[in-house]
Amino acid sequence: MEKTIHPSQVSGEVRPPCSKSYAQRALAAALLSDGETTLSNIELCDDTRYAMNVITGLGASVRQTGPTEYVIRGGLAPITDTINTGESGLATRLFTPIAALCDRRMTITGTGTMLRRPIGMMIDPLRNLGVQVRSNGYLPITVQGPLRGGETDVEAYVSSQFLTGLLMSLPLAEGDTILHVEQPNSLPYLAVTVDLASKFRIRMEHNGFREFFIPGGQHYHPAKLHIEGDWSSAAFMLVAGAIAGEVTAKRMNTLSLQADLAIIQALTKAGAVIITTPDEITVRKRELTGFDFDATQRPDLFPILAVLGANCEGTTHIRGVNRLVYKESNRAEAIVSEYTKLGMDVALEDDVMTVRGGSLSGGTIDSCNDHRIAMAAAIAALAASGPVTITNAQAVTKSYPRFWDDLDSIIRTKA
């Protein structure tokens, strides 16, 4: 699929989709609960759809009771020996420890780029916690539990997703567990995990996310949850407002624990006009200046931060490049290789991405099957001097299936 976006002014309101980070964690908790959980504001992007299929394969009963409402009867009792997590890194690393709670052989596989993303960090901790594991460091991985608890080190520099899987599964282990976390990253995502688990009455203690104590023998209690809007998705529309007009994102928790709420910090540093209430945010165009931003804990913001920086006067420095290697693409390389085709002055040095402001020229780029590369390129087109054509534009369905419709709805006039 190709999509062409012309230079345009924007004005209007959007309602970003639900947070897939919250949604996948909530689906996992619902699977592990002893009864019926009601989840509202669930929109099925590719990643969330795969998570829904996984919990069904692991024994949950799912009933849709409204356009975005689902009732899930929990119960970990697999009806299949193989689960497929698609291209979702979170689903892969979240549901592998959950599958390892079962005293039967389970194989976890995926599709596309997920087959090339590393999962070796899971092997030793799972074995240390009593699980039989067979894997070459990539999918597929075969596990046989039960996960028993104990004490182990967990590497969380490349990703905290596997740690999230352990935090959600180990409360159901027979014994207590102590986890020593090496170089924890994506700390806001761990805060989301702890918060979500607490809503199902799960207890755990931690010391600055570097050491966790998880009591075993706990039970997930059913809950009724509204899944909040996704700041990762909202970031694209808010930057559209900052560089091309005015945009309001509705039904957004401006006190959220989500990592990408930090887009507000970046927009503030750049000088955009920002108006917030507890449940919405408006961003309006103003002359922007280059800024420094540390994206180490929120690497998903890199593509749209690069676009924001390109529309600022002066130079922008974004730290945390090392977090981008194992995404849907090598995201740092994709930003440089594709966005330079649009005239962006962007370079990498060590752990820093430097973007020098200047007008973008338009052109054709490949999304590299990366949803965030595609969406950020579309936003870049709004303030470019010519149209931008994006190939493999269907990649947006991974997180924001109605992105193109939402973008069309706020385009008012061609620039």
Automatic annotation (TrEMBL):
Segments forming domain Enolpyruvate transferase: 7-407
Keyword Transmembrane helix: no
Active site per database record: D300 (proton acceptor)
Localization in the cell: Cytoplasm
Keywords: Amino-acid biosynthesis, Aromatic amino acid biosynthesis, Cytoplasm, Transferase
Reactions accelerated catalytically: 3-phosphoshikimate + phosphoenolpyruvate = 5-O-(1-carboxyvinyl)-3-phosphoshikimate + phosphate
Pathway per the UniProt entry: Metabolic intermediate biosynthesis; chorismate biosynthesis; chorismate from D-erythrose 4-phosphate and phosphoenolpyruvate: step 6/7
Chain residues that bind 3-phosphoshikimate: K20, S21, R25, S159, S160, Q161, S186, D300, K327
Primary residence: cytoplasm
Enzyme Commission number(s): 2.5.1.19
Residues binding phosphoenolpyruvate: K20, G89, R117, Q161, R331, R372, K398
Superkingdom assignment: Bacteria
Keyword Amino-acid biosynthesis attached: yes
Family: Belongs to the EPSP synthase family.
Known function: Catalyzes the transfer of the enolpyruvyl moiety of phosphoenolpyruvate (PEP) to the 5-hydroxyl of shikimate-3-phosphate (S3P) to produce enolpyruvyl shikimate-3-phosphate and inorganic phosphate.
Subunit comment: Monomer.
Name of the protein in question: 3-phosphoshikimate 1-carboxyvinyltransferase
Source taxonomy: Bacteria, Pseudomonadati, Bacteroidota, Bacteroidia, Bacteroidales
